[in-house]
Structures are given as C-alpha cells and as structure tokens.
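Hi R.,

As promised on Friday, here is the backbone we talked about, encoded as structure tokens. Could you run it through your design pipeline when you get a chance and send me back a sequence?
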C-alpha cells in the first residue's frame, strides 16, 4: 500500500549483470543465447500487472522437478540459482541491483504500510513456481519479515479478487485513496479496530483486492498493536495535561494528526481520523 517508484534497473540490465557473474561456460552460453527472449518476459509481466491480471500468468505445479526447462533452455533450478547466487550474492555484480532495490524502500515495507522495515527481497510472484521472473526487478519487492511470503507457501491468486497490491505497478487508487478505516471498540480501556473499507464507487474486483491485501498481511491485528501504544499515551495525556480541554479543543488537537503529511492509509492517520470523528471519545471524561 506504499507506492514504490519502478526499479532503476531494467530486466535486461539485471540479466546482463547477473550473467557477468556466471562461472559455468555451458550455463553462460545458454543464458546469453536466450537473453533477448528472456527480456521480453518483463513486457508481459508489466502489461499484466498494470491490468491487474498477474493471476492469469500460469505457474508451474508446486512439485515441478528442478531440471524442468522453463524458458530458453534454462531450468527451474538455474532460474532460482540466478537469484540466489548471481543477484543476492554479495560477491557478484548482480548484488548492485539487490542493494539498490532495498534502499529504494526508504526503510518502509510497502506491503504493510511501513510498520515493518524491509529485511530482504520478496518475489511478488514466488520464484518456486514462477522461476522465469526470479531476477526481473519489477518482481522483487523489499519486504519486512512479517510480510515476506516468498517460500512461506503463500496462496497464489487464482482469480483477480485474490491479488494483493503490487507496490510498483498497481492502480493509483490503491495508494491515493483511503480504503482503511477504524472504529472504537471500547472506551475504558480505550481500544480501536481496523478494517478494510474501500470506497463505494470502486469496482468490485478492486474492493475485494484491498480486502485480500488487508487480510493476507494481517493488518487488522498488526495495526491494532501499533495503535494500542499510541492510544495509551494519548489517554494518559488527556487525563493530565489536556484534562481542561473542551471537547472541541481536544478534537482540533486530534485533527492536527489527521492532517500530518503521511500517506493516506497510514495506521496513525486512520486512528486519529477515527478518534476525531467520535463525539463520545472527544468528550469522554477519562
Ligand atoms: Zn511489511
């Protein structure tokens, strides 16, 4: 839900840099012969992602043999090796791509809206069943530990509604419009809960997709944990230094956080939005 700029490196640059690191003459030759066609997979990926159709790209069966030839004479195992030994490996030229992608996230995991710090790259389409995209930068998402689903047996979308939000290529509405809300669950002790609330004028698929994203990354639970600490400090202040504030003044104080220059679906912005709209909370004698 945080939009990332497209990677600086193209697929061709990634294939070239990773190819430089390959030691085996046989692998290197096959790789170089197929490179033009391999680069075209980036176009397919891009077109389908922008259209919200990545789910339509066929995956390999989970139990596909390592020696299965995926494209241009390159096997499943070799595609995975390209990532693990020629892109991720700190000793290889391809590592420059890994490092730049990680830096591009500015320490904020795009999947969870920055509550986690990126620890490694996640294959948006997992490399185990989409090995052909293993080193295409557009498929590599800097991700925090809690959000990284690569290899965790993430359930692959089989229909459009089941697709999570793509940080590089998805529609602007997912990043610029509010689709998360919160409500107060109890006043004393005060707690709130978050839920996906896509705008009514969105098409059904987009509504379902944000619900999938919200659910798959367990954002309700994770945001509530973040909010609990913030809320306890706020209530503490309301009881003490802000105890003489009128409800209207307290509401203005809450609204100042809503207007903070952070992205629209940030858990904190949503929390203050919810609190400032709640008459009982603004006037509550804690
Ligand atoms: Zn995350």
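Update: got your reply. Pasting your designed sequence below so it's all in one thread:
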């Amino acid at each position: 839900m945080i939009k990332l700029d497209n990677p600086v490196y193209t697929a061709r640059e990634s294939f070239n840099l990773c190819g430089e690191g390959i030691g085996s003459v046989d692998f290197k030759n096959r790789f170089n012969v197929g490179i033009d066609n391999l680069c075209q997979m980036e176009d397919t990926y891009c077109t389908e992602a922008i259209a919200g159709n990545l789910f339509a790209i066929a995956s390999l069966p989970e139990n596909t043999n390592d020696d299965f030839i995926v494209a241009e004479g390159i096997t499943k195992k070799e595609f995975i090796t390209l990532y693990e030994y020629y892109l991720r490996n700190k000793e290889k030229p391809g590592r420059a791509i890994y490092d730049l992608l990680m830096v591009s996230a500015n320490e904020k995991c795009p999947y969870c809206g920055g509550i986690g710090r990126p620890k490694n790259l996640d294959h948006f389409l997992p490399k185990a069943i989409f090995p052909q995209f293993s080193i295409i930068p557009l498929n590599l998402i800097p991700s925090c530990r809690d959000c990284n689903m690569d290899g965790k047996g993430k359930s692959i979308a089989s229909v459009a509604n089941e697709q999570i939000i793509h940080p590089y290529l998805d529609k602007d509405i997912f990043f610029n419009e509010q689709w998360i809300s919160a409500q107060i669950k109890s006043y004393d002790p005060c707690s709130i809960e978050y839920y996906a609330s896509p705008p009514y004028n969105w098409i059904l698929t987009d509504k379902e997709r944000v619900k999938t994203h919200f659910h798959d990354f367990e954002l309700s639970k994770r945001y509530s944990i973040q909010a609990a600490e913030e809320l306890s400090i706020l209530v503490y202040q309301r009881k003490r230094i802000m105890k003489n504030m009128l409800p209207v003044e307290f509401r203005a104080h809450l609204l100042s956080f809503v207007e903070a220059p952070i992205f629209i679906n940030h858990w904190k912005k949503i929390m203050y939005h919810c609190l400032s709209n709640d008459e009982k909370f603004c006037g509550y004698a804690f």
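One thing I noticed while checking it: The chain has ten helices and six strands.

Thanks again,
M.
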